[in-house]
Amino acid sequence: MLDDLLIRNRQWSAQRNADEPGYFARLATRQSPEFFWIGCSDSRVPANVVAGLDPGEVFVHRNVANVVHSSDMNLLSALEFAVDALHIREIIVCGHYGCGGVRAATEDLPHGLADHWLEPIRRLARAYAVDLARCENMDELRDRLAELNVLEGVRRVSETPILQRAWADGEPIRVHGLIYGLKDGLLRDLDCTVAHGDVMNGKMTVYGRE
Ligand SMILES: [Zn+2]
Hints:
Beta-carbonic Anhydrase, Chain A; 5 strands; 14% strand; binds zinc ion
């Protein structure tokens, strides 16, 4: 299996260099991605591929169910580097429908450490229980919860001292919330972009259900 992977890598590298001579030499000197992507670890939602971006164009942090924990040093370190060192202006929190992490957060079963990790999603499900109860089935409920998890992620990223400081310095950074459909390969804008000076006021909307 690993041999196959290494063979495919050599083929890809050779093809890339044939298409664009000097490609890797240029890319090795610096990275200047336009986007910072916070997404789910799910193998079906690779940031570069679904966004149609090449190596060097998106700086990526992924974890189970794209949860933004306000004390996650891994995420915060990547966010700080993206903002302060790479001067990225577009931050994307991207969830996806059919997310196994969101599903686990709605199940009354023990999942070990994942239950600690997914606690913010369980909390969202409790906070929006009345809205979510209007969903016609569990699949729909989980998809609405995946959307809420993205909105919450956008809010939490926006509230970090990293973003607050950058905005105070006049940096034109925007934080977007997207959700990806495994069934159609499409990204949807959840229309919850936070930009300089904005705040996410009031209660979030469960999309598609006012
Ligand atoms: Zn997922």
